Amino acid sequence: MGAVMEHLTTSEAAVAAGVSVPQVQRIIDEQILPKDLYSTAQMRTFRTDACVLIAFYFETAELLTASARLRAIRNALEHCPAWDSWKDCTFEEHSVTVRFFDIWKGVDDRLHQLASAQDAIVEDPEILRGTPVFKGTRVPAYYVAAMVEAGVSMEEILETYPSLKDWQVRLASVYARAVPPKGRPKRTPSNAPAEKSYIKRRLRPSSIGG
Questions:
Q1: How far apart (Å, rounded) are the C-alpha atoms in residues 112 and 182?
Q2: What are the CA-CA distances from residue 7 to residues 4, 16, 43, 96, 131 (Å)?
Q3: Which of 21, 49, 98, 174 could connect to 117 by a Cys-Cys bridge, CB 3.0–4.6 Å?
């Protein structure tokens, strides 16, 4: 796929880098990366190649000091200016050989998943008032993601939503992390299967500190 997704939101960058949203926010707040790798105009966005460095910074936290990681980032940017060059990017950092291939490959794989999720899930104002659904269905993606998060088996999810395939179920979680729902949860559509007990338990006030 390469770097076709040139500008990623904070949550998309977190998915691509395999880290949390607060960690991605730290990258900007602490000015860990050069400013040309991200933008703070209107909203925070990141270049695709920034995700490789974000992943590197946090994945190597137990191996390298913060200053060593920052030096490695500067060296990487000097030697690996293009997206495709990251897979062959290797250099020495204080007797430590830094190879970016595995990190680059992980980011590239997650970017493929992210692109697939955003292609498989659509928002149509004519379908469930714009609730994100799987293309060609009326199955809400966030409901499926909630089931996955609750530990529901693939077999039970496919039994509940027989129009879905297992690969679509896996993409639901990717989409929910990259495009988190906004505002208050929407009401369950009248045509959706009844909520299972695990969903009800997760939504009871007592389960969320109410």
A1: 24
A2: 9, 12, 11, 32, 24
A3: 174
Nearest to 110 by CA among 122, 98, 118: 118
pLDDT digits 0-9 by tens, 74-108 = 888 887 777 777 777 877 766 777 788 889 999 99
Residue tagged 């949860």 (tokens): 185
CA distance 134 to 171: 10
Q: Report the amino acid identity of residue 177.
A: R
Q: Are 68 and 94 in contact (CB under 8 A)?
A: yes
Angstrom distance (rounded) from CA 168 to CA 74: 39
* Whole-Å CA distances, 81 to 32, 51, 77, 104: 17, 14, 6, 13
The span from the CA of 142 to the CA of 145, in Å, is 5
Helices marked H in the chain? 10-17, 21-29, 48-59, 66-79, 101-120, 141-149, 154-160, 166-178, 197-203
Residue 180 · residue 15 · CB < 8 Å: no
Length of the chain: 210
Across all residues in the chain, what is the average pLDDT? 83
- Look at residues 34, 44, 36, 58 and name the one whose alpha carbon lies nearest to residue 13: 44
